[in-house]
Input
Amino acid sequence: MLNIPAEILAVQAAHWERFARLYAGEAVTPWPAICGAYQGYYGPPVDAALAAWIADTLPGLVAEMVAKAANPRAFYPLVLEFAPLGVHFVDALFGAEVWQTEHTVWSAELPGTLATLPALDVAAQPLAAWMLRALARLLALLPAEFAVTTPIFSSPLNVTLNLFGERALLELADPDADTRRGIDHITTAIADLHRLTRSTFPARVRFYCSSSRYAPDGVGHVCGCSTQLVSAATYADHFAARDAAVLGVYPGGGTIHLCGHHTQHIPAWRAMPVLRAVQLNDAASDDFPAYFHGLRDDQVIYLSPTDDMPLARILEISGGRRVVYQGEVENG
Output
């Protein structure tokens, strides 16, 4: 693999320092912009497929990423995404049938209910073992300044709905102790995956989607996509503490991704000490004013622009405070 020029490493270090200051509560000028892409391995968890991708794609991809990393204004993190099975990685660990097509990944719901879901020994699962081997292989091939992400470990609610669909929502309407225990099994598995990767790779393995949602070392991440489907009470009663438990694996807390209309949960997220940031795109970006004014002053907001929430409007609302702009910029 190529050697990264010192001037590019200096640019990267300046971006790392800017994010560290942002998370420390400082007013960062100019406001951070991040323009990483989801580049990396998205194939199946099969050694032969990974080896072919490494031979055919990895060298050129690394060179392309290094060239972009020289941008002093927009941050292009040297982070390789690793997302076998997409958003269904944890589903597969629980035994769900998961299959990939050329463009996406699908999964089938499990039989039974949350109340019948058994606990999972993550470290004993062949898929988890393959993940660790694959991460080690990628790290050995990449320049030392590169990081690799974990697979997408999602969130307790997302995995709950992936595994049981609307049956889970019906159970949540009147949950008993067994239903709550099933959600705990999912939460524990996700937290254990984070612990397993952090303990195996203390450095250079970051949370998934770090290429465009970079945060300082020791900060984690969960997906909040499906929180738009549940009421504020359901989330507060059954999932807020479980999301916090996953983020609590990380010494610096973590962030949550949101892509729909989730504003009913702002009070819960404001009251969540370990939640350090939210990441908004699509419909959630249009609700930026509610997040900016409703969250704590120490909670950062990553924001992908939309037609209704362009950069000029973002800066008008925020004054550039607490925001990470996700997109290309020509100047500050």
Notes: Residues 85 and 105 are 6 Å apart (CA to CA). The chain has a mean pLDDT of 96.
